[in-house]
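Narrative summary of target 7.
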Amino acid sequence: MRLPDEYTPKIPLRFRKDGGFRILMMSDAHQKPGPDVRTPLAMGLLIDRTKPDLVVLGGDNVCGCETEDQFREQLERIASPMEERGIPWAHVYGNHDQTDRLSKRWQQAAYEEYRHCVSRTGPEELPGTGNYFLPVVDESGEPVYGIWGIDSQQDWRTQTVPLEYKGDLYWDVMMPMPIASYADYDFIRFEQVMWYWNTSVTLEKQCGHKIPSLMVFHIPLYEFNAILRNAGRTQYKGEYNERLSNSEINSGIFAAIFQRGDVKAVFAGHDHINTFDGIYCGIHMGYDGSIGYQAYGTRENDPGHDRERLRGGRLFDITREDPWDIRTEMTFVGSLD
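Modeled conformation, tokenized:
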């Protein structure tokens, strides 16, 4: 059964003739005004090397822009690797994307002007911008797989929808002995969790089955700590190089996807030099590293003594025959020469 137009991107996402579908996620471009073009070059290099069917930008995409013209110029730089190659691409927002002068609503309109950008604003009543579902269909147009994009918000000082809370969030939430983090990041709001749940139920009713899916957002979940603290049981792989910067407030999105059972992979950006992943409660979770050369890289005491060692993206491979089995690995740029 074909899905209604509200779930159909302007460029249909289809499995290849060989039955595969590949996603390349690249996060934390932090593209800023200036002459540095290493990030777009690296993006193009990874695209040419991995040949994805869809590119997903994982937040903190364009930063440090004071004017609309500056933003459009930098967006053009990070959009061009996909646009020049005719590859569909989507994005989510990070904590550095919104500014006082450039709201995410305004930015979204600029993103959607690109021919191959398949992201959507999402329902206007939801907190944040860019909450959407993208189906991947077979040759008959039947949805086989899905990608959920969620806006994971910013921090307490730059809330897109202020909490109706009369207390001091920094005093009441940021305790001397934090539960799972040390950071003042906002959280995926209940309205977004409810939207995911209701949309997931609607999709199942329309299709007659659950649609196995990947969910992406910028700020990691509370539950990522389970991967790190139980490496043997969770099949941990990759690198852990900095503290997890999740919100101290548990959003409940993990409980929702655990109960629904359709999202089998959840990945975030945000912590540039964490690249680990693992499986917790049957859900593959972890990090995409950082592609941005204007973002911080590895520390001075890194064993490799190479600040750019972890520049790269994350690959996801799905097959039409078994879309519940998603294969993922990091891929790194290496030398740009």
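The first helix runs from residue 38 to 50.
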